[in-house]
UniProtKB/TrEMBL annotation:
Subunit details: Homodimer.
Cofactor note: A monovalent cation. Ammonium or potassium.
Organism: Pseudomonas weihenstephanensis
Record protein name field: Type III pantothenate kinase
Keyword Ubl conjugation: no
Role of this protein: Catalyzes the phosphorylation of pantothenate (Pan), the first step in CoA biosynthesis.
């Protein structure tokens, strides 16, 4: 069984595969919590491990050491490269492109085998363009919904509301009649406007000959504006498996 991990700055997203079937998955706040979650499920016998980490080298090395000690397996770590699996990194300094973002690009091209637009909607929102020949053209980064709302809450004294109120406000898209409705729906419109701009640019590049991939925690919020898009929640893991094959 293969343990895969996407180690972000705040938490670790993980899943366990037996060939193509996902047997377990979750989100852990720490290495200790991750080990406990996997170990508590006695049906999960880890034989291989691969990961992508955007943490510091020291933090990543510590996590690798813990995994080796706990599961007695080698840990494959994704690393920056100029090209892999037919995709060429488009950054001037390829090592500066975030590894999780790079693997989402690799994963999308692996699935499409052609031109594609990758939209990752998380704390930050990223858009990346990959031509039919696998050349990464670059992309855009902007704040996602969590960052937008947190900035308004932090810097505007009269904007105060909880997360449940925010969720309820997004059940409609009519003009807001309360502060929480106005903020949440306004931020969502900004997010959808960003997405539509990326779609327009992709059409300018490739006409209709491209695919759109959505990933990230807030991807569901823009699905209605992109009916042709593929929603792939674990796109980074697709790229991780492509960049770090076990054979």
């Amino acid at each position: 069984m293969i343990l895969e991990m996407d180690c972000g700055n705040s938490f670790i997203k993980w899943r366990v595969l037996d060939r193509e079937a996902v047997l377990g998955s979750g989100i852990a706040d720490s290495a200790t919590e991750l080990i406990a979650a996997v170990s508590d499920n006695h049906d999960l016998k880890i034989t291989h491990c691969r990961m992508v980490s955007v943490r510091s080298d020291e933090e990543t090395a510590c996590l690798v050491a813990v995994l080796r000690a706990e599961f007695s397996v080698a840990v494959m770590c994704a690393s920056p490269v100029r090209a892999v699996a037919g995709v060429t990194n488009g950054y001037e300094d390829f090592e500066r492109l975030g590894l999780d973002r790079w693997l989402a690009v690799v994963g999308a091209f692996e699935l499409s085998k052609g031109a594609c637009l990758i939209l990752d909607l998380g704390t930050a929102v990223t858009a990346d363009f990959v031509a039919a020949n696998g050349r990464h053209l670059g992309g855009f980064i902007c704040p996602g919904l969590p960052l937008m709302r947190d900035q308004l809450r932090t810097h505007t004294r009269r904007i105060k509301y909880d997360d449940h109120s925010a969720e309820q406000a997004l059940l409609s898209s009519t003009p807001g009649r309360t502060t929480v409705e106005a903020v949440e729906r306004g931020c969502l419109l900004m997010l959808r406007g960003f997405v539509q701009t990326q779609l327009q640019l992709a059409h300018e590049y490739w006409g209709e000959e491209f695919e759109v991939f959505l990933t990230g925690g807030d991807a569901d919020l823009v699905m209605s504006a992109l009916p042709q898009a593929h929603l792939v929640k674990d796109l980074v893991f697709v790229g991780l498996a492509t960049a770090c094959p076990l054979s």
